[in-house]
Batch of 2 targets.
Target 1
Amino acid sequence: KAKRRGRNTCQWYTEDLNRKVSERVSLRNALQQAIEQEQFELYFQPQMHGLSGRVIGVEALIRWHHPERGFIPPGDFIGLAEDTGQIIPVSDWVLATACRVAKQLNALGHGPITMAVNVSPMHFQRPGFLKAIEQVLEESGLAPHLLELELTEGVLMDSAEQAIQALQGLRQLGVHVALDDFGTGFSSLSYLKRLPINRIKIDRSFVRDVITDRHDAAIIDGVVAMAGKMGLEVLVEGVETAEQFGYLAQRRCDYFQGYYFARPMPLSDLRAFLASPPAIAAPEALMPSS
Ligand code: C2E
Ligand code: MG
Ligand code: MG
Ligand code: MG
């Protein structure tokens, strides 16, 4: 009996595996069509300066509208696109589109608004990467300091020396670099010291319970102190409540991004948002009596 169950289990796994493989194949084909037919759209999430309440930038976040399957979030296809190399044409599209939008937004007098673009490891490590950035800036006419590339710790650790060279190249171009999801990777602080970057984005996993979890609070305090000494800006991701904002502002975080301020939105909504940004309460007013 046990044996039969064992065999069934095995068969079940095989079917499961087959299903996963064919799902990946069909996703890859669908992605190919998406690239050819431009089924992508960029959403933009505002980034705020806490004290002034000003929008200082936006992060471009890709959205895939599949004609039959509907909306597919980036978490469901970016990884596969990395594996198949399809991330390259996707990234090229994202960069070109984001820079064009940034140029428009800054021309409207809302500026200066920085455009933050997520860069995938494969894109960053490609030999022609710097040239491609230079070219997209030239084509769009966007000032280099208004482009901020978001890299993760993993990307930079994979091939450290090469990464540092590429970062130096970006700095020479005048392009800004932010370290995304900071705290979730394993980069050592001594390594961080050598990276020519402008900003650290503290991962939202440290923000969720920051008010009640003293470990999270200690980590935030430590990163803010360290970043300050290293001349790096700190932006906190995933701020969802007024209390979190008030608390983090009091801990000397300067820049914020999260649902509390605004969700990622299509360009038309972003234009309206920038034209009349909602007033945000001064952070002191938000603190529970302390
Ligand atoms: P990320 O770069 O860390 O982007 C932040 C993610 O957190 C976004 O998810 C955003 O919608 C979400 N988020 C923002 N504020 C909050 C909040 O207050 N609470 C919560 N729970 N979530 C919040 P999204 O758009 O699904 O993107 C997921 C990830 O996919 C991104 O993480 C990024 O790593 C990747 N990604 C998105 N667009 C691109 C792209 O154009 N190129 C590449 N290579 N990767 C991208
Ligand atoms: Mg990001
Ligand atoms: Mg992030
Ligand atoms: Mg991420």
Target 2
Amino acid sequence: GSTLQAAAAESGRYFGTAIAAQRLNDSTYSTIANREFNMITAENEMKMDATEPSQNQFNYTNGDRILNWALQNGKQVRGHALAWHSQQPGWMQNMSGTALRNAMLNHVTQVATHYKGKIYAWDVVNEAFADGSSGARRDSNLQRTGNDWIEAAFRAARAADPGAKLCYNDYNTDDWTHAKTQAVYTMVRDFKARGVPIDCVGFQSHFNPQSPVPNNYQTTLSSFAALGVDVQITELDIEGSGSAQAENYRKVVQACLNVSRCTGITVWGVRDTDSWRASGTPLLFDGSGNKKAAYTTTLNTL
Ligand code: XIL
């Protein structure tokens, strides 16, 4: 294939990007996005603060803009994210206990119902585990409602949209030996054993010199897949430039290709200037929309 989406499709996979609604009017941006990618994630527009700015008052304007752009251009959509400790609306940040639990479940139900039938996979819960060596859940207002908040969110999402794959998504879960990776693995194994509805695990995969692509990345992907879930690389970006950056992209793409249940890769933005990494150059296109070495290597590896 001569584009990322066409090359990925040769092995039955997708290649996606995060899209920001306010950039869709930039024709350089939308031309590249439409040409290269066939799976779309809203970078911010489907998050809790965007979709429920006041309690029980839902706003789908920008989420729908991205969804409709994607569907009109023949693409699929990853929903991101139904429940998360971050980017909560102000009214939710100060809630606790049963009221918060019910508000969270209502949010999951309402948003998944609004997008019912249109989402390939939802990140139902994002970033619920702590960094470091504890292997514990991250402390958050949601976690303080009870350890079962994650499975409650998954059950609500399944009831609202039975056709969407339901994913757990996190970062710093790429290294198989990392306590956080093992903790997520144990949760997914438990969910599968008890029949909690989970279909996939997303690996954000934000890499940089402090957090490089681990040599055991493929082991991580294949170990999760062996639990009976799909795995997806959901927010890929790799700090660097030139051939060193390209080589890191090659390692990530090859690891996914080597795991049959690795169903697709999404990069977290189009051009370096679109990246959430303010001064970095972690993506596949430069600020002018030119293909970087990392692009060519990614295309040739797919
Ligand atoms: C980031 C967006 O890219 C930024 O625009 C926003 O200011 C903060 O969130 N993990 C996630 C993503 O799951 O939702 C985050 O996206 C990046 C880290």
